[in-house]
C-alpha cells in the first residue's frame, strides 16, 4: 500500500533513524529527508515521528521485518 507516498518517502517511512543517518544511507541531503518527512506528516496529518508511525500502521503499512526483530 503506498497511500500516495513517493519512492523516497517509502524508503524512509519506517527507518527510525536520524535525518542525517537516513540521508547518508540514501545518498541524499538531510534537507531532502526533512522535506520528505514533512510531506509524509502532511499526508497523514501527523505531528511527530511516533504519530506518523502509528497513523501509517493504522493505514495498513506493516513495520519492516528489521523493526520487528528489535
Structure, explained:
The chain is mainly α and 70 residues long. Helix content is 61%, strand content 0%. The protein has 5 helices and no strands. The longest helix is centred in the middle third of the chain and has 15 residues, at 30-44. It is globular, with a radius of gyration of 11 Å.
Low-confidence stretches: none
Number of continuous helical runs = 5
- Which range does the strand content fall in? under 5%
Distance between the termini: 23 Å
- Give the tally of β-strands: 0
The biggest sheet amounts to: none
SSE map:
Blueprint: H1 7-12, H2 19-26, H3 30-44, H4 49-58, H5 65-68
What is the compact description of this entry?
This protein has 70 residues and is an all-alpha fold. It contains five helices and no strands.
Features:
single chain; globular; mainly alpha; 0% strand; 70 residues
Amino acid at each position: 500500500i503506498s497511500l500516495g507516498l513517493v519512492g523516497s518517502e517509502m524508503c524512509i517511512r519506517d527507518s527510525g533513524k536520524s535525518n542525517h543517518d537516513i540521508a547518508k544511507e540514501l545518498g541524499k541531503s538531510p534537507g531532502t529527508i526533512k522535506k520528505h518527512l514533512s510531506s509524509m506528516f502532511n499526508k497523514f496529518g501527523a505531528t511527530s515521528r511516533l504519530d506518523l508511525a502509528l497513523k501509517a500502521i493504522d493505514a495498513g503499512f506493516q513495520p519492516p521485518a528489521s523493526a520487528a526483530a528489535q
